[in-house]
Amino acid sequence: MIAYIYIHLHNLHNTVTLHQLSKWSDAQVILHIGCGERGNEEAEVLKEFPELTDPYSGRPLMERTILIANTSNMPVSAREASIYTGTAIAEYYRDMGYDVLLVADSTSRWAEALREISGRLEEMPAEEGYPSYLASRLAEFYERAGRVEVLGKPQRVGSLTIVGAVSPPGGDFTEPVTTHTLRFVRVFWALDPTLAYTRHYPAVNWIMSYSAYVDTVAEWWRRVGPDWYELRSKLYSILRREEELLEIVRLLGPEALAPEENLVLDAARMIREGFLQQSAYDPVDSFCSPQKQFRMLRLFVMFYELALDAVNRGVSLADVRSLPVISELLRAKYTIPNDKLDEFDKLEQRIKSELEGLRAPIPT
Question: Which CATH number characterizes residue 231's domain?
Protein backbone atom coordinates (compact mmCIF):
# COMPACT_ATOMS: atom_id res chain seq x y z
CA MET A 1 0.00 0.00 0.00
CA ILE A 2 2.73 2.42 -1.07
CA ALA A 3 3.59 4.69 -3.96
CA TYR A 4 6.61 3.72 -6.01
CA ILE A 5 7.93 4.24 -9.52
CA TYR A 6 9.85 2.43 -12.14
CA ILE A 7 11.78 4.44 -14.71
CA HIS A 8 12.08 2.81 -18.08
CA LEU A 9 14.57 3.89 -20.72
CA HIS A 10 13.26 3.14 -24.21
CA ASN A 11 10.92 0.09 -24.01
CA LEU A 12 12.67 -2.39 -21.75
CA HIS A 13 9.96 -5.01 -21.32
CA ASN A 14 7.99 -2.57 -19.18
CA THR A 15 4.79 -4.03 -20.66
CA VAL A 16 5.70 -7.52 -19.44
CA THR A 17 6.60 -6.05 -16.03
CA LEU A 18 3.19 -4.38 -15.97
CA HIS A 19 1.47 -7.65 -16.88
CA GLN A 20 3.25 -9.50 -14.08
CA LEU A 21 2.42 -6.82 -11.50
CA SER A 22 -1.23 -6.94 -12.52
CA LYS A 23 -1.39 -10.71 -12.67
CA TRP A 24 0.32 -11.66 -9.41
CA SER A 25 -0.43 -8.75 -7.07
CA ASP A 26 -2.77 -9.39 -4.14
CA ALA A 27 -5.05 -6.53 -5.24
CA GLN A 28 -8.67 -7.30 -6.04
CA VAL A 29 -8.97 -4.42 -8.54
CA ILE A 30 -6.36 -3.38 -11.12
CA LEU A 31 -6.39 0.02 -12.85
CA HIS A 32 -4.10 0.68 -15.79
CA ILE A 33 -3.88 4.28 -16.99
CA GLY A 34 -2.28 4.62 -20.40
CA CYS A 35 -1.45 8.31 -20.46
CA GLY A 36 0.02 9.70 -23.67
CA GLU A 37 1.66 6.46 -24.78
CA ARG A 38 1.85 5.36 -28.42
CA GLY A 39 -1.27 3.81 -29.87
CA ASN A 40 0.39 0.47 -30.62
CA GLU A 41 1.42 0.11 -26.95
CA GLU A 42 -2.14 0.75 -25.77
CA ALA A 43 -3.43 -1.67 -28.39
CA GLU A 44 -1.01 -4.29 -27.05
CA VAL A 45 -2.38 -3.83 -23.53
CA LEU A 46 -5.97 -4.03 -24.77
CA LYS A 47 -5.11 -7.19 -26.70
CA GLU A 48 -2.98 -8.94 -24.05
CA PHE A 49 -4.96 -8.30 -20.87
CA PRO A 50 -8.12 -10.19 -21.93
CA GLU A 51 -5.91 -13.20 -22.75
CA LEU A 52 -4.24 -13.29 -19.31
CA THR A 53 -5.64 -15.64 -16.68
CA ASP A 54 -6.13 -14.54 -13.10
CA PRO A 55 -4.08 -17.12 -11.09
CA TYR A 56 -6.31 -16.67 -8.03
CA SER A 57 -9.69 -17.30 -9.66
CA GLY A 58 -8.77 -18.98 -12.94
CA ARG A 59 -10.95 -16.49 -14.80
CA PRO A 60 -9.82 -13.82 -17.29
CA LEU A 61 -7.70 -11.14 -15.64
CA MET A 62 -9.76 -8.52 -17.46
CA GLU A 63 -12.67 -9.17 -15.08
CA ARG A 64 -10.84 -7.34 -12.28
CA THR A 65 -9.05 -4.81 -14.49
CA ILE A 66 -10.06 -1.30 -15.58
CA LEU A 67 -8.22 0.27 -18.51
CA ILE A 68 -8.12 4.02 -19.17
CA ALA A 69 -6.52 4.59 -22.58
CA ASN A 70 -5.38 8.05 -23.65
CA THR A 71 -2.95 7.79 -26.56
CA SER A 72 -0.51 10.48 -27.62
CA ASN A 73 -2.78 11.75 -30.41
CA MET A 74 -5.72 12.41 -28.07
CA PRO A 75 -6.55 15.94 -26.83
CA VAL A 76 -4.11 17.29 -24.31
CA SER A 77 -6.89 17.90 -21.79
CA ALA A 78 -7.83 14.19 -21.92
CA ARG A 79 -4.25 13.18 -21.19
CA GLU A 80 -4.09 15.62 -18.28
CA ALA A 81 -7.41 14.39 -16.82
CA SER A 82 -6.71 10.67 -17.22
CA ILE A 83 -4.55 10.46 -14.08
CA TYR A 84 -7.23 12.11 -11.94
CA THR A 85 -9.97 9.97 -13.48
CA GLY A 86 -8.09 6.77 -12.72
CA THR A 87 -7.27 7.80 -9.15
CA ALA A 88 -10.89 8.75 -8.45
CA ILE A 89 -12.07 5.33 -9.70
CA ALA A 90 -9.36 3.63 -7.61
CA GLU A 91 -10.46 5.50 -4.48
CA TYR A 92 -14.07 4.52 -5.15
CA TYR A 93 -13.15 0.81 -4.99
CA ARG A 94 -10.77 1.42 -2.08
CA ASP A 95 -13.65 2.96 -0.11
CA MET A 96 -15.65 -0.21 -0.75
CA GLY A 97 -12.95 -2.12 1.15
CA TYR A 98 -10.96 -3.48 -1.79
CA ASP A 99 -7.19 -3.56 -2.25
CA VAL A 100 -6.52 -1.61 -5.44
CA LEU A 101 -3.42 -1.43 -7.65
CA LEU A 102 -3.12 1.59 -9.94
CA VAL A 103 -0.46 1.68 -12.66
CA ALA A 104 0.12 5.02 -14.42
CA ASP A 105 2.09 4.68 -17.66
CA SER A 106 3.48 7.17 -17.95
CA THR A 107 3.52 10.16 -15.61
CA SER A 108 6.07 11.85 -17.89
CA ARG A 109 3.43 12.15 -20.64
CA TRP A 110 0.97 13.48 -18.08
CA ALA A 111 3.51 16.11 -17.01
CA GLU A 112 4.03 17.06 -20.66
CA ALA A 113 0.26 17.61 -20.94
CA LEU A 114 0.44 19.84 -17.85
CA ARG A 115 3.22 21.81 -19.52
CA GLU A 116 1.24 22.25 -22.74
CA ILE A 117 -1.90 23.41 -20.93
CA SER A 118 0.17 25.77 -18.78
CA GLY A 119 1.70 27.26 -21.91
CA ARG A 120 -1.70 27.82 -23.50
CA LEU A 121 -2.86 29.58 -20.31
CA GLU A 122 0.24 31.81 -20.57
CA GLU A 123 1.43 30.86 -17.10
CA MET A 124 4.98 31.63 -16.02
CA PRO A 125 7.15 28.57 -16.93
CA ALA A 126 9.66 27.02 -14.53
CA GLU A 127 12.57 24.71 -15.37
CA GLU A 128 12.43 23.15 -18.85
CA GLY A 129 9.08 24.85 -19.48
CA TYR A 130 7.14 22.84 -16.89
CA PRO A 131 4.71 24.81 -14.69
CA SER A 132 5.93 25.89 -11.28
CA TYR A 133 3.27 23.73 -9.61
CA LEU A 134 4.57 20.47 -11.16
CA ALA A 135 6.06 19.30 -7.86
CA SER A 136 2.87 19.95 -5.89
CA ARG A 137 0.73 18.15 -8.51
CA LEU A 138 3.01 15.10 -8.36
CA ALA A 139 2.90 15.16 -4.55
CA GLU A 140 -0.92 15.38 -4.58
CA PHE A 141 -1.05 12.35 -6.87
CA TYR A 142 1.29 10.04 -4.96
CA GLU A 143 0.04 11.00 -1.50
CA ARG A 144 -3.34 9.45 -2.36
CA ALA A 145 -1.78 5.99 -1.98
CA GLY A 146 -2.16 4.22 1.33
CA ARG A 147 -4.16 1.88 3.54
CA VAL A 148 -7.23 3.39 5.17
CA GLU A 149 -9.99 2.50 7.60
CA VAL A 150 -13.10 3.61 5.74
CA LEU A 151 -15.82 5.64 7.44
CA GLY A 152 -19.30 4.18 7.73
CA LYS A 153 -20.74 0.75 8.33
CA PRO A 154 -19.89 -2.05 8.03
CA GLN A 155 -16.32 -1.50 9.16
CA ARG A 156 -13.90 -2.10 6.30
CA VAL A 157 -10.28 -1.49 5.37
CA GLY A 158 -9.14 -0.66 1.84
CA SER A 159 -5.84 0.17 0.24
CA LEU A 160 -4.50 1.91 -2.85
CA THR A 161 -1.04 1.14 -4.24
CA ILE A 162 0.24 3.47 -6.96
CA VAL A 163 2.91 2.47 -9.47
CA GLY A 164 4.06 5.35 -11.64
CA ALA A 165 6.20 4.81 -14.73
CA VAL A 166 8.53 7.65 -15.65
CA SER A 167 10.07 7.93 -19.13
CA PRO A 168 12.90 10.49 -18.90
CA PRO A 169 13.89 11.80 -22.35
CA GLY A 170 17.32 10.49 -23.28
CA GLY A 171 17.56 8.66 -19.95
CA ASP A 172 18.26 11.93 -18.11
CA PHE A 173 17.48 11.34 -14.44
CA THR A 174 18.06 15.03 -13.65
CA GLU A 175 15.03 16.25 -15.60
CA PRO A 176 12.23 17.80 -13.48
CA VAL A 177 9.63 14.98 -13.58
CA THR A 178 12.15 12.38 -12.42
CA THR A 179 13.77 14.52 -9.72
CA HIS A 180 10.46 15.70 -8.26
CA THR A 181 8.99 12.19 -8.33
CA LEU A 182 11.99 10.77 -6.49
CA ARG A 183 11.39 13.36 -3.77
CA PHE A 184 7.97 11.95 -2.97
CA VAL A 185 8.22 8.18 -3.48
CA ARG A 186 10.35 5.86 -1.40
CA VAL A 187 10.71 2.90 -3.78
CA PHE A 188 12.51 3.18 -7.11
CA TRP A 189 13.04 0.57 -9.82
CA ALA A 190 15.48 1.61 -12.56
CA LEU A 191 15.12 -0.40 -15.77
CA ASP A 192 18.60 -0.61 -17.26
CA PRO A 193 19.13 -0.77 -21.07
CA THR A 194 22.43 -2.62 -20.60
CA LEU A 195 20.67 -5.44 -18.74
CA ALA A 196 17.89 -5.54 -21.34
CA TYR A 197 20.38 -5.82 -24.21
CA THR A 198 22.03 -8.76 -22.44
CA ARG A 199 18.59 -10.41 -22.06
CA HIS A 200 18.51 -10.03 -18.29
CA TYR A 201 14.83 -9.70 -17.37
CA PRO A 202 13.37 -8.05 -15.44
CA ALA A 203 15.96 -5.42 -16.34
CA VAL A 204 15.94 -3.82 -12.89
CA ASN A 205 19.34 -2.38 -12.00
CA TRP A 206 20.05 -3.55 -8.43
CA ILE A 207 22.62 -0.80 -7.80
CA MET A 208 20.52 2.18 -8.90
CA SER A 209 17.23 0.86 -7.49
CA TYR A 210 16.37 1.23 -3.83
CA SER A 211 13.63 0.96 -1.23
CA ALA A 212 13.24 3.09 1.88
CA TYR A 213 10.83 0.53 3.34
CA VAL A 214 13.42 -2.18 4.05
CA ASP A 215 13.36 -1.66 7.82
CA THR A 216 9.55 -1.47 7.75
CA VAL A 217 9.04 -4.76 5.90
CA ALA A 218 11.88 -6.52 7.74
CA GLU A 219 9.51 -7.38 10.61
CA TRP A 220 7.15 -9.10 8.17
CA TRP A 221 10.00 -10.92 6.42
CA ARG A 222 11.30 -12.23 9.74
CA ARG A 223 8.10 -14.25 9.98
CA VAL A 224 9.16 -15.94 6.73
CA GLY A 225 12.80 -16.31 7.76
CA PRO A 226 14.30 -14.94 11.00
CA ASP A 227 17.63 -14.04 9.35
CA TRP A 228 16.17 -12.48 6.17
CA TYR A 229 17.59 -9.00 6.83
CA GLU A 230 21.12 -10.29 7.43
CA LEU A 231 21.03 -12.54 4.34
CA ARG A 232 19.74 -9.68 2.20
CA SER A 233 22.59 -7.44 3.41
CA LYS A 234 25.20 -10.11 2.61
CA LEU A 235 23.79 -10.73 -0.87
CA TYR A 236 23.69 -7.01 -1.62
CA SER A 237 27.28 -6.57 -0.41
CA ILE A 238 28.38 -9.27 -2.90
CA LEU A 239 26.69 -7.40 -5.75
CA ARG A 240 28.20 -4.08 -4.65
CA ARG A 241 31.65 -5.64 -4.39
CA GLU A 242 31.26 -7.08 -7.89
CA GLU A 243 30.56 -3.57 -9.21
CA GLU A 244 33.86 -2.37 -7.74
CA LEU A 245 35.88 -5.36 -8.99
CA LEU A 246 34.55 -5.08 -12.53
CA GLU A 247 36.30 -1.71 -12.86
CA ILE A 248 39.62 -3.40 -12.02
CA VAL A 249 38.88 -6.24 -14.47
CA ARG A 250 38.19 -3.74 -17.28
CA LEU A 251 41.56 -2.09 -16.67
CA LEU A 252 43.85 -4.99 -15.73
CA GLY A 253 41.95 -8.18 -16.50
CA PRO A 254 40.78 -10.96 -14.14
CA GLU A 255 44.36 -12.15 -13.63
CA ALA A 256 45.00 -9.11 -11.43
CA LEU A 257 42.46 -10.31 -8.85
CA ALA A 258 43.07 -12.62 -5.92
CA PRO A 259 41.17 -15.95 -5.81
CA GLU A 260 38.81 -14.55 -3.15
CA GLU A 261 37.95 -11.62 -5.43
CA ASN A 262 37.40 -13.89 -8.43
CA LEU A 263 35.06 -15.92 -6.21
CA VAL A 264 33.04 -12.75 -5.59
CA LEU A 265 32.62 -12.34 -9.36
CA ASP A 266 31.54 -15.98 -9.70
CA ALA A 267 29.07 -15.71 -6.82
CA ALA A 268 27.61 -12.45 -8.19
CA ARG A 269 27.15 -14.05 -11.61
CA MET A 270 25.34 -16.98 -10.01
CA ILE A 271 23.11 -14.60 -8.04
CA ARG A 272 22.26 -12.66 -11.20
CA GLU A 273 21.46 -15.75 -13.25
CA GLY A 274 19.88 -17.93 -10.58
CA PHE A 275 18.16 -15.41 -8.33
CA LEU A 276 17.65 -11.98 -9.92
CA GLN A 277 16.66 -13.17 -13.39
CA GLN A 278 13.06 -14.32 -13.67
CA SER A 279 11.13 -15.63 -16.65
CA ALA A 280 7.57 -14.35 -17.03
CA TYR A 281 6.86 -17.20 -19.46
CA ASP A 282 8.00 -20.14 -17.33
CA PRO A 283 5.11 -21.80 -15.42
CA VAL A 284 7.27 -22.31 -12.29
CA ASP A 285 9.47 -19.20 -12.35
CA SER A 286 6.70 -16.78 -13.32
CA PHE A 287 5.71 -16.41 -9.66
CA CYS A 288 7.94 -16.91 -6.61
CA SER A 289 6.39 -17.14 -3.16
CA PRO A 290 8.10 -15.32 -0.25
CA GLN A 291 9.02 -18.69 1.28
CA LYS A 292 10.74 -19.88 -1.89
CA GLN A 293 12.46 -16.54 -2.33
CA PHE A 294 13.89 -16.75 1.19
CA ARG A 295 15.11 -20.32 0.68
CA MET A 296 16.85 -19.35 -2.57
CA LEU A 297 18.39 -16.31 -0.91
CA ARG A 298 19.77 -18.45 1.91
CA LEU A 299 21.19 -21.04 -0.52
CA PHE A 300 23.16 -18.51 -2.58
CA VAL A 301 24.62 -16.79 0.49
CA MET A 302 25.47 -20.16 2.05
CA PHE A 303 27.21 -21.31 -1.14
CA TYR A 304 29.37 -18.18 -1.23
CA GLU A 305 30.37 -18.44 2.44
CA LEU A 306 31.24 -22.15 2.19
CA ALA A 307 33.12 -21.60 -1.08
CA LEU A 308 35.06 -18.71 0.48
CA ASP A 309 35.97 -20.94 3.42
CA ALA A 310 37.19 -23.62 0.97
CA VAL A 311 39.32 -21.12 -0.97
CA ASN A 312 40.82 -19.84 2.29
CA ARG A 313 41.76 -23.45 3.12
CA GLY A 314 43.78 -23.59 -0.09
CA VAL A 315 41.25 -25.21 -2.43
CA SER A 316 41.71 -23.99 -5.99
CA LEU A 317 38.98 -21.87 -7.56
CA ALA A 318 38.88 -24.25 -10.51
CA ASP A 319 37.80 -27.09 -8.19
CA VAL A 320 35.00 -24.91 -6.79
CA ARG A 321 33.83 -23.96 -10.27
CA SER A 322 33.70 -27.62 -11.36
CA LEU A 323 31.21 -28.69 -8.66
CA PRO A 324 28.11 -30.37 -10.22
CA VAL A 325 25.80 -28.78 -7.63
CA ILE A 326 26.32 -25.32 -9.14
CA SER A 327 24.17 -26.10 -12.19
CA GLU A 328 21.46 -27.51 -9.90
CA LEU A 329 21.55 -24.35 -7.81
CA LEU A 330 21.14 -22.17 -10.90
CA ARG A 331 18.20 -24.29 -12.13
CA ALA A 332 16.41 -24.38 -8.77
CA LYS A 333 14.10 -21.49 -9.70
CA TYR A 334 12.74 -23.62 -12.57
CA THR A 335 12.88 -27.10 -11.03
CA ILE A 336 11.55 -26.49 -7.50
CA PRO A 337 7.90 -25.35 -7.38
CA ASN A 338 6.50 -23.10 -4.66
CA ASP A 339 4.72 -26.03 -2.98
CA LYS A 340 7.77 -28.35 -2.78
CA LEU A 341 10.16 -26.37 -0.63
CA ASP A 342 11.51 -29.53 1.03
CA GLU A 343 13.57 -29.98 -2.16
CA PHE A 344 15.70 -27.05 -0.95
CA ASP A 345 16.73 -29.10 2.10
CA LYS A 346 18.19 -31.78 -0.19
CA LEU A 347 19.95 -29.17 -2.32
CA GLU A 348 21.35 -27.51 0.80
CA GLN A 349 22.83 -30.80 1.98
CA ARG A 350 24.40 -31.40 -1.44
CA ILE A 351 26.03 -27.96 -1.38
CA LYS A 352 27.46 -28.57 2.09
CA SER A 353 28.74 -32.05 1.30
CA GLU A 354 30.39 -31.11 -2.00
CA LEU A 355 32.07 -27.94 -0.70
CA GLU A 356 33.16 -29.45 2.60
CA GLY A 357 34.48 -32.46 0.71
CA LEU A 358 36.98 -30.36 -1.24
CA ARG A 359 40.54 -30.73 -0.05
CA ALA A 360 43.47 -28.44 -0.62
CA PRO A 361 46.32 -29.96 -2.67
CA ILE A 362 49.14 -31.46 -0.59
CA PRO A 363 52.33 -29.39 -1.06
CA THR A 364 55.22 -31.28 -2.62
Answer: 1.10.1140.10
β-pairing verdict for 187-191 and 3-8: parallel
Does residue 310 belong to any structural domain of this protein?
yes
Express each pLDDT in 327-346 by its tens digit: 999 999 999 999 999 999 99
Range of the domain at 47: 3-212
As a whole number of angstroms, the distance between CA 238 and CA 261 comes to 10
CB proximity list for 278: less than 8 A, separation 6 or greater? 201, 202, 285, 286, 288, 333
Residues 197 and 249 in one domain: no
Query: Does the predicted TM-score (pTM) go above 0.85?
Result: yes
- φ/ψ of 46, rounded to 5, equals -65, -30
